Protein backbone atom coordinates (compact mmCIF):
# COMPACT_ATOMS: atom_id res chain seq x y z
CA UNK A 1 0.00 0.00 0.00
CA UNK A 2 2.83 2.41 0.73
CA UNK A 3 4.82 1.55 -2.41
CA UNK A 4 2.30 3.15 -4.84
CA UNK A 5 2.17 6.26 -2.66
CA UNK A 6 5.97 6.44 -2.58
CA UNK A 7 6.14 6.05 -6.36
CA UNK A 8 3.55 8.77 -6.85
CA UNK A 9 5.48 11.07 -4.52
CA UNK A 10 8.71 10.36 -6.41
CA UNK A 11 6.99 11.06 -9.74
CA UNK A 12 5.65 14.37 -8.45
CA UNK A 13 9.09 15.36 -7.12
CA UNK A 14 10.69 14.55 -10.47
CA UNK A 15 8.00 16.52 -12.31
CA UNK A 16 8.62 19.50 -10.03
CA UNK A 17 12.35 19.28 -10.64
CA UNK A 18 11.75 19.10 -14.39
CA UNK A 19 9.54 22.20 -14.19
CA UNK A 20 12.24 24.03 -12.23
CA UNK A 21 14.93 23.18 -14.77
CA UNK A 22 12.65 24.19 -17.64
CA UNK A 23 11.95 27.55 -15.96
CA UNK A 24 15.67 28.21 -15.51
CA UNK A 25 16.30 27.47 -19.18
CA UNK A 26 13.45 29.79 -20.20
CA UNK A 27 14.85 32.60 -18.03
CA UNK A 28 18.29 32.15 -19.57
CA UNK A 29 16.86 32.13 -23.09
CA UNK A 30 14.77 35.25 -22.45
CA UNK A 31 17.78 37.15 -21.08
CA UNK A 32 19.96 36.16 -24.03
CA UNK A 33 17.19 37.06 -26.47
CA UNK A 34 16.77 40.49 -24.87
CA UNK A 35 20.53 41.11 -25.10
CA UNK A 36 20.46 40.14 -28.78
CA UNK A 37 17.55 42.53 -29.40
CA UNK A 38 19.38 45.33 -27.61
CA UNK A 39 22.35 44.83 -29.95
CA UNK A 40 20.03 45.20 -32.93
CA UNK A 41 19.67 41.55 -34.00
CA UNK A 42 16.58 40.65 -36.01
CA UNK A 43 13.71 38.50 -34.71
CA UNK A 44 14.92 35.35 -36.52
CA UNK A 45 18.33 35.63 -34.87
CA UNK A 46 16.69 36.15 -31.48
CA UNK A 47 14.55 33.04 -32.04
CA UNK A 48 17.67 30.99 -32.84
CA UNK A 49 19.43 32.26 -29.73
CA UNK A 50 16.43 31.47 -27.55
CA UNK A 51 16.03 27.95 -28.96
CA UNK A 52 19.73 27.25 -28.48
CA UNK A 53 19.49 28.06 -24.78
CA UNK A 54 15.89 27.21 -23.88
CA UNK A 55 15.46 24.12 -26.06
CA UNK A 56 14.15 23.28 -29.50
CA UNK A 57 10.50 23.28 -28.40
CA UNK A 58 10.63 26.76 -26.85
CA UNK A 59 9.00 29.66 -28.66
CA UNK A 60 9.92 33.32 -28.43
CA UNK A 61 7.73 36.38 -28.93
CA UNK A 62 9.36 39.75 -29.51
CA UNK A 63 7.59 43.03 -28.76
CA UNK A 64 8.47 46.69 -28.39
CA UNK A 65 7.03 49.39 -26.17
CA UNK A 66 8.62 52.69 -27.08
CA UNK A 67 12.35 52.32 -26.47
CA UNK A 68 11.85 49.12 -24.45
CA UNK A 69 12.22 45.73 -26.13
CA UNK A 70 10.68 42.58 -24.66
CA UNK A 71 11.26 38.88 -25.25
CA UNK A 72 8.77 36.34 -23.89
CA UNK A 73 9.79 32.68 -24.05
CA UNK A 74 7.30 29.85 -23.47
CA UNK A 75 7.58 26.07 -23.37
CA UNK A 76 5.88 23.04 -21.86
CA UNK A 77 7.41 20.97 -19.09
CA UNK A 78 8.99 17.80 -20.46
CA UNK A 79 9.06 14.32 -19.01
CA UNK A 80 6.37 11.71 -18.52
CA UNK A 81 4.22 13.83 -16.19
CA UNK A 82 4.86 16.98 -18.21
CA UNK A 83 2.88 15.46 -21.07
CA UNK A 84 0.10 14.39 -18.70
CA UNK A 85 -0.16 17.70 -16.86
CA UNK A 86 -0.13 20.53 -19.43
CA UNK A 87 2.24 22.91 -17.62
CA UNK A 88 3.02 25.90 -19.81
CA UNK A 89 5.86 27.97 -18.38
CA UNK A 90 7.06 31.37 -19.56
CA UNK A 91 9.78 33.89 -18.87
CA UNK A 92 10.07 37.51 -19.95
CA UNK A 93 13.06 39.80 -20.21
CA UNK A 94 13.11 43.49 -21.15
CA UNK A 95 15.84 45.86 -22.20
CA UNK A 96 16.39 49.21 -23.83
CA UNK A 97 17.70 49.30 -27.36
CA UNK A 98 21.44 49.91 -27.71
CA UNK A 99 21.37 49.98 -31.50
CA UNK A 100 22.20 53.33 -33.04
CA UNK A 101 20.32 54.29 -36.09
Radius of gyration over alpha carbons? 17 Å
- How are helices and strands ordered from N to C? HHEEHE
Number of domains: 1
3D shape? elongated
Sheet with the most strands, sense and barrel status: 3 strands, antiparallel
Number of helices: 3
Spans of 5+ residues with little confidence (pLDDT < 50)?
A: none
Strand content: 15-25%
Strand order of the largest sheet: 1-2-3
Protein name: Pilus assembly protein TadE
Keywords: Signal
InterPro entries: Rv3655c/TadE
Signal peptide: 1-19
Question: What keyword list fits this structure?
Answer:
elongated, signal, alpha+beta, 3-stranded antiparallel sheet, 3 strands
Give an overview of the whole structure.
The chain has 101 residues and is an alpha+beta fold. It has one domain (2-96). The protein has helices at 2-39, 43-54, 80-84; strands at 59-65, 68-76, 88-96. The protein has a 3-stranded antiparallel sheet with strand order 1-2-3, covered by helices on one side. α1 runs antiparallel to α2 (43-54). It is elongated, with a radius of gyration of 17 Å. It starts with a helix and ends in a 5-residue tail after the last strand. The mean pLDDT is 90. Residues 1-19 form the signal peptide. Keywords: Signal. This is Pilus assembly protein TadE. It comes from Pseudarthrobacter phenanthrenivorans (strain DSM 18606 / JCM 16027 / LMG 23796 / Sphe3) (Arthrobacter phenanthrenivorans).
Amino acid sequence: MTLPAALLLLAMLLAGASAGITQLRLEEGARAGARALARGDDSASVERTVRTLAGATASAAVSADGEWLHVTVTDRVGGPLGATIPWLLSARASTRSEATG
